[in-house]
Structures are given as C-alpha cells and as structure tokens.
Amino acid sequence: MTPIRVAVLGAGVVGTQVIRLLREQGEELSARVGAPLELVGVAVRRPHQHPDIPAELLTTDAAALVAREDVDVVIEVIGGIDPTKDLLLTALRRGAAVVTANKALLAEEGPALYEAADAAGADLYFEAAVAGAIPLIRPIRESLAGDRISRIMGIVNGTTNFILSAMTADGSSYELALKEATRLGYAEADPTADVDGFDAAAKAAILASIGFHTRVGAADVYREGMADVTAADISAAAELGCVVKLLAICERVNTGTGDAVSARVHPVMLPRAHPLAGVDGAYNAVYVEAESAGRLMFYGPGAGGAPTASAVLGDLVAVARNKISGGRGPRESAYAALPVQPMGEVPSRYHISLDVDDKAGVLAAVATAFAEAGVSISTVRQEGREAEATLVVVTHSAPDAALSATVSRLSELDSVHRVTSVMRVMGDVA
Amino acid sequence: MTPIRVAVLGAGVVGTQVIRLLREQGEELSARVGAPLELVGVAVRRPHQHPDIPAELLTTDAAALVAREDVDVVIEVIGGIDPTKDLLLTALRRGAAVVTANKALLAEEGPALYEAADAAGADLYFEAAVAGAIPLIRPIRESLAGDRISRIMGIVNGTTNFILSAMTADGSSYELALKEATRLGYAEADPTADVDGFDAAAKAAILASIGFHTRVGAADVYREGMADVTAADISAAAELGCVVKLLAICERVNTGTGDAVSARVHPVMLPRAHPLAGVDGAYNAVYVEAESAGRLMFYGPGAGGAPTASAVLGDLVAVARNKISGGRGPRESAYAALPVQPMGEVPSRYHISLDVDDKAGVLAAVATAFAEAGVSISTVRQEGREAEATLVVVTHSAPDAALSATVSRLSELDSVHRVTSVMRVMGDVA
C-alpha cells in the first residue's frame, strides 16, 4: 500500500517522544492505520543536537519540508505563532493534514487555519493542544456533537495546579512553591505563560470555540493569573471548606436578550466536595456539563513529552485513516456565532477578608458599601483581636463589575485598614 | 443540500429521547452536520403506545424500514440479538451507517457486524453501548490509537454500583439494597443481567476488543456477579481500608510466552484512595492506563434515556459527517489477535475470612494449606472470641486457580468452621 508520509516540525520535549514512538512502534501504528506510516523529515534548528535522529531525516529548512508534495501529514510541535502559522498554512493549502499541539496558535489564529483547511479539504487536528493526553477535543467536537454543552470547567494548567497544591499541602508561599516547581521541572525558567494564565486562557478559547460552536479567541477570554494568590487566601479558603484552584471556565449563558459565551481564567475558591477540588499536583481534569449527557469528568496527565505525544499520535492515526478512506475529520463548527459576555456582567460570588477597626459601626459601614453597590451579603464573620478585627464576607451572586467596584470602595473606608483577601467563590459554601 | 435520512429502531427509554431530541434540536444538529437530518421512520411493536411520535413515521415492519434504499443511517435502540442482528446486517450490507447502543449484540456478534460494515464500506458506531454518555469508545478507538493501552478498568454497571454504594453507606443487605434500587428505577424487574455481571461482561468484551486490537467476545470474559456479596464482605473490606466494587477489568498481560488479554468481571476490594473507589451511586467511571498517556479517568452518568441518547446523537452527527465527506470512521482493528488468558492463570490477591476453633495449631494448619498450594500470605489477623476465633488472611499475588483451590481446601479443614468471606483484593492494602 502507498505509505502515509509524515513530517515533524520540532524535536523538543514532545517532538522527541513523537519521533521515538514513530520509529519504535511504527509497525503497530501502521497496522492500526491500514497503511505504512513513513517519517520523511524532521525540521529542527540545530541538527547536531539530535544525534538520536537519523541525519538524513533532519533539516533546518522547515518551509521546504512543509512544501514537499510527498508529505501527507505535518506534525507541528515547535509552538509559537511566527513562523509556525505560515508553515501550517502552506501545508494545509496544498492539502496536507496538520496535527498540532499549539494552543497559542489555535487561540490566536484558529479561523485562518480552519479556512485554509476547508478550502483544501484538509484535516486539522489538535487533541494535544488542551490537557495533554486527556481525550478532550475529540469528545467535545465529536462525542458530544449531538448534545448541548452548558459548561466546560477545568484545571488545564499543570504548573499552576502543582504550585497551588503545594501551597495548600504545606502552607508555603507562592514564591517558595514556584521555586520548588521550577526545581522539579514543572515550571519553566520564565513561568509567565503559566502563572499569569496565558496558557490556560488559550485552552479556554479552544474549548469554548468547539463547545459552543462559536469563534472565541484568546483576547475574548478574561484572564487573571495566580501570582497574587497568598498563603492567607489558601487558609481563608480552607476555613470556608474550600481549596483554591486556577480554573478555566467556559459557559453558555442566557443574558436575558439571548445566549452568550463566557470564557474566563481566574483563581477560585472551590468546595472540597467538588470533583475538581481533589485534582492535585501536575494533573489536569475537565468537567463538562451537557443538557442530555449530564456531568462528565475527564482526568489525566495534562502535560509532559510522552503524554502529549500520545495525543499527537492518536491524531496522526486518525488523519492517516481519513487519508486512506478519502474522508475528513470534523471541520470548524462556528455556526452559533454567539457574542462573548463581558466579564463585568458575569455573575460571581466573592469572598473578601478585611482588617478593620474593632469598634461599633464598622460592620454597618461595610454592609452599607455592599448594599449601595446592589451586592447582597450571604455570610459575614467577625473575628476580634486586640487592636483590630477581621471581617470575612461571602457575597451572594452579583455582576462581577459590581463586586470589584465594592472591593475598591471598601478599601477606601477609614475603618478598613486593609483588604487581605479577595477571591471568587464557586458553588455552595457556608 | 441532500438530507441525511435517519431511521430509528425502537422507541423505549433511549429511543424516545433520541426521537425527541432529533425533532426538538434537528436544526442545531443539522448545522453541525452540514446537511439536514431527516427522521424518516421509527420501528416499534405497538404504534398506539407512541402518541408523541407522528403516526406517519411509525411502522411495525422494522425489516422493511432497514431495507429502504433512502435510509442513510439506522439507529438501533431495541436491544437483543434476534432479530436485531439481521436487521443491522441488512442495513450495513446496503451501505447504511449503523449507530447502536446494543452491548450484548456487539459482544456476541461484533465480528459479523464489522465484516458486513467493511464489505460495504459502511460505518458502525456504538459509543452508547458502554458507559452511557461517557465518551469512551471514541477515546479508546481514536484518541488512544497512537498509544499502547495496558489496562482498562471500570465501574460500567450503574445498577450494581448503586446497590454496592447503598450497602456500604448504611450496612444494608444485598436483598434490601436491591429492593430499594428497584423501587427507584435503578434496577429492572429482572435484575439478572446486571447483578450477575452479564451487562458488565459484554462491556468488558467491547472495551478489551477495541483497546487491545483483538476479538474478545462475551464468552471470553470471566464473570462473577455481585449477588453473593454480603454485608460481612463490605465490613471486612472497610477494615482493610477498602470498598467493594464490581469491576470490569481488561488487561494486556505478558504470560512469559507472549502477550495475552485478560478480561474479567468480579467484585473487588479496592483501596479507598483509588480514584474508582469514590464513584458512588448509579455513576460509571473508567480508568485507562496507557504506556505514553499514563493514567486517565472518564466519569459520568452510565445509563438513562437522555445520557444514552446524547451518545447516540453524537454518533449520528459523526456518521452523517462521514456520509457528506465521503469518508469512513474507524473500522474493526483486530490485527493483534492476542490469546485470552484463562482466569485460573490471572494473578490475584485474595482476602479470606474464616471462623475457626480458638485453639493452638489452627493457624499452623491454615498456613500449611496456603503453603501447599504455593500461595504466600501477606497478612493474617486473628480475632479471638469465646467459642471460636476469626482469621482474616490477605494473600500475596498468586494464580487465581491456586487461590480458589486453597479456599476449597480450607473449608475442608476440621478446625475451620466456616469461610465467611472470600474476595479478590486490588492494589496495596495493609
């Protein structure tokens, strides 16, 4: 049978595993495809750094590799927007299938890639772009294609989950936990993309797009990282029976005038009984709610060379099977074209801790600030100390803008010394 | 665009939901497919019992419906082997795609259906056959197609999990818990298929087949139900830090002379820390271990009309998309053709409770019985009482046949009054 010819762009942590597995398990994979898989080229920057890859496969000219007419599938594991976008467009335009793990590119430039794929009838697969080895893209794009998804919520960044788990387990500070994560290889030298939520926001954009049949880009996702989460926040959460998680939350909401999509990434106090609360360390888990299916959860390793390579190779087998059967995988589905709900309108509950004067009238002043903003208080707890007291307020649901405005006003009250912890709360808490 | 014409066989619990959703959300589903979906017929036994379905769609002649040349997709939700098998063969042979939720048929007659599908280039999809709405077939057949799965282990029967959860929660007997499950609609009037493990065994056969690229039929699955699980077993498990679960376990094992598949369904004492131990009530969860992906878990509602309909409609959208693109979904993948390991050779650990004479030498006699069978004891605990004592033994791993032979011999010892609890143990226990 005519072989399916595969080119790989990049031989880093994921690429190395993809190439190793293609070479070690090529026969097995070919049996599953129904035709031989042949690795015909690997584009890298520095060929001499890859002694394990046969020299005749290596090239520094990625542009020439993706343009080769005999390449049927391009696997992209270099990341970044530029020049990756152009490389993939070149491949798609001449009908090659693309398998990519590039969440940032999909979140920024997904529509352009989809359009090129559609124009040429080519496949664009990206299971590895969200939550590593956990099958998530395929279940949402395909298994749940007959259902109405209302919410996709998950821990999709292992680095920040590792840090938050460590802070929760031993009360350590963010700085110490980050240092440990870096030492163990869970955090990169520059952890910005992870701790500031950029990585999770790109994944939220992808999940919201496929879940709600709407184009949602990285810029549509409200984003708050976890660099400001303190040990005080973690212990405040514990007192509420909660843990702190950095969640990607994608919802289909009814705004009163119609449906909209909300996509956001921020730290949340989550009740310990919630299935996501027990997901610790570098693991990922995504919770999906759909009208007919009910509540589903997907759990597994969210990153790492081998797990991500597993997802890439699953996609490779799929696109190769499509090549043979003459079919195509799912295309972009953006027919719903829902608007994105601004973060200010998203209903939130807040937990707020305040250091206040320990004297009469303070609670009244604080309560007034909430009332004037139209925010209703669910519980308030006062803990007296010598010179000052602490007020812990948990609100009912209110528009996020009203809540953040209230927090600003509170910090301006004379009787409030300091706002020590502010965090959104999810679910039922005391 | 030419519509995709759909026939439904059966309008019971699942069929009713499929038909409702097709009619209520047909436009949405059509947008996702890229062509109109048109329901052209519903085969039922008693048309007058379905006033909600337009009379012109109803027919009692299922054979004529599946033979109609204008039907593109046949959805089968009647169950059973006969005449269902022939109906689906007729549909597949003339190139219609089949979407079925029929685990028993797939486990018994899967190869015949696959062969007919392959001969005609037709699709055969069955996401709903295992674990209701939980995407599992597609992740295993497609997402993990680039990986080597070593184990698939899960709670795949909601009825028995509901009963075991109730017995664990309140110490009630099997009979009482079954009565309650029946009252609440979680158990059928004749619960045999569930409590005797036939349902779970059919699902294990399907999971082992697709996970290990080998034909595994229902008859290849070792099966023990949970009707003999007693309140004493449950409390013995609790003393070990375990819960009792009825698991479907599919493993790829190295027998020394090569790889083999083990597929079995039986009650297990599972440590509370295991992710499956916390899955309670009618929920299902499946744990998958793969060489590159690591450990994955899938969790959700395993049965019910709407969840199962969600899985059926996801498959409908998939096969309809394939019809339009001219492609095909995954075929049978049975190239590995591994042998099935007999249960007697499967390495097991046993928990055994014995009522024995409270006198010197009993432990020695019991220990000798284990030793003579080549079974090594991990822990033994003796609880004295007035007239007699209880011995609780947990073994190391040994071939299942050696363990069951040992249990028979123990019950023949004069000093052993009664074997009160025997159950396989999984994982690390004290």
Automatic annotation (TrEMBL), chains A, B:
Reaction catalyzed: L-homoserine + NAD(+) = L-aspartate 4-semialdehyde + NADH + H(+); L-homoserine + NADP(+) = L-aspartate 4-semialdehyde + NADPH + H(+)
Classification via InterPro entries: ACT-like_dom_sf, ACT_dom, Asp/hSer_DH_NAD-bd, HDH, HDH_cat, HDH_CS, NAD(P)-bd_dom_sf
Domain ACT: 351-424
Binding sites annotated in the UniProt record for NADPH: K103
Keywords, comma-separated and alphabetical: Amino-acid biosynthesis, Methionine biosynthesis, NADP, Oxidoreductase, Sodium, Threonine biosynthesis
Catalytic residue positions: K203 (proton donor)
Protein name (database record): Homoserine dehydrogenase
